[in-house]
């Protein structure tokens, strides 16, 4: 049987690189910043423009009506992001918008593709580093065409863990996040890091630079592409309570193996986050 999704996969790689080039160029010009859910949840004209370009290119290539889209910048206008069985592109045009605004050089284009509610592939282009991460279900994960694998560390004391503070400034939430970070530091782990983009953080797990990355409050477009990349690199993808990963839950734990994941999970205090699909 012909490989039905190879063409969309190749196209996603092509489009992510084009989008990254546009982002790099936009970073040299004046950046127009707006806010979304709160004063620290930033969006720029580039986020909106790049999403339109990506979706426009996919529609032109594959037809207007055959594919569905969940895109960060068009999501609010559409209401809850419901994943159906139809081929669906899940897009974060600029993951790491705060980084982009401040010139902190970790910004990624994240493009994932799901069919029958299952992720088929993910592409993450870290555009200032010029590194392209990609994975197709069952076919391994790659960075710039080189196969990548998670680290084989099982001893938590020899691990590096990534987490992020996110954009929620509710005092109780911030207190819980800080307390969780403190508990993880005191395990002790070698260190806690964060690139400011969930997509890139997941690629750091996938290529063995860190052992785990977890976050509560991320959205499906932040982690959909990274989810395929981590799993295809041999890692595990879970809910922050250790249960099965749910793309719409806004909770995600990715790790090199179950031992590391379970140890980090022990220290996570979970706080509520409204689901992406409104359920
Ligand atoms: O830059 P974004 O596309 O908005 O995604 C960010 C998110 O805003 C921030 O809250 C998270 O901590 C990051 O991990 C996301 O990638
Ligand atoms: Mg994002």
Note down, in words, how this protein is organized.
The protein contains 8 helices and 14 strands. The protein has 279 residues and is α+β, with helices and mostly antiparallel strands. The strands form 3 sheets. Strands 3-4-5-6-7-8-9 form a 7-stranded mixed sheet, with helices on both faces. A 5-stranded mixed sheet has the order 11-10-12-14-13, sandwiched between helices. The longest helix has 21 residues. The radius of gyration is 18 Å and the shape is globular. The mean pLDDT is 97. Bound molecules: ligand LTE5OB6J and magnesium ion. Magnesium ion (MG) binds next to strand 4 and helix 7. Homodimer.
Q: What is the name of the CATH superfamily of the largest domain?
A: Fructose-1,6-Bisphosphatase, subunit A, domain 1
Ligands in the model, by name, code or SMILES, are: the ligand O=P(O)(O)O[C@H]1[C@H](O)[C@@H](O)[C@H](O)[C@@H](O)[C@@H]1O, magnesium ion
User: Could you estimate the helical fraction of the residues in percent?
Assistant: 25-40%
Structural category: alpha+beta
Main location: cytoplasm
Protein name: Inositol-1-monophosphatase
Pfam family, one: Inositol_P
Binding site for Mg(2+): 72, 92, 95, 222
